[in-house]
Amino acid sequence: MRASVFNWLKKEVLPSWQLYLFLIPATVYIIIFAYVPMAGVQIAFKNFNFNLGIWGSEWIGLDNFRRFFDSYQFTTLIWNTISLSMYSLLISFPLPILFALVLNSFTGLKFKKIVQSVSYMPHFISTVVIVGMLVQLFNPRTGAFGALYTYFSGELLADAFANPGAFQHLYVWSGIWQGIGWSSIIYIAALSSVDEHLHEAAQIDGASRLQRVRHIDFPSILPTATIMLILAVGNIMEVGFEKVFLMQNELNISKSEVISTYVYKVGLTIGSGDFSFATAIGLFNSLINFVLLIMVNYAAKKFSNTSLW
Asked: Of the candidates 64, 154, 219, 295, which lies 20 to 30 Å from 98 by C-alpha distance?
């Protein structure tokens, strides 16, 4: 055993020792911030006490999970999280693919570069600024949409942030505007690797541009799209905390309260903080994501031969 390990080190590691040296900081970072904190997950099964610490706190088993399942907010939190995630996924997943296919269809290189640069810019705007822009734009009195609505209708526009039904639309479509260009990068990169001879041969055979997109471009990015879909479904319960929290108020909370914001409030803002309960909710959330990831990866491997593993 020792001889085989030594031979492996001699043949595989030593010739490229510089590359393995570069891996050390990343490995240490992952161990410290990803694996070591896993020991703290046990407080989900304990009644955490600051004085006793993680290891000394009383073990209560699944009581925190039962408490969450029996909570009157359980159904609302699950529905709000899933509906917002599914709405976002159904819109934000296909649009970057469509955007990449359309942009790739243009022949003017300068025009394509300008469109790409303009579409990338919103990605670099912070979430706080995005929410501030939304508040200003949809302000019934001073916002651009409010002023236009009043000008044409003579009536005051309803406050979108006070309407629970408008919350998901504001969240999703502002996210589309901010991220469609950035999300399309990986598909544009995949399209750039398509052999031009395929398009030339298709043109000689009389194929239209739409036919070439359908039979050449789309199949070429399908494996990439499958992987991105698997990853997206695996994070379907992870609704962006920061943006939801900033857009949330007492008037739209019936639709804007999701698991991530509830965990924050339970763990850090209500009294001294119920860390055990918050950890149990977060662990339950992660477990659902893990199960969905396994299921979608299995389905993708079975039907398309493309999967994460």
From this structure: 295
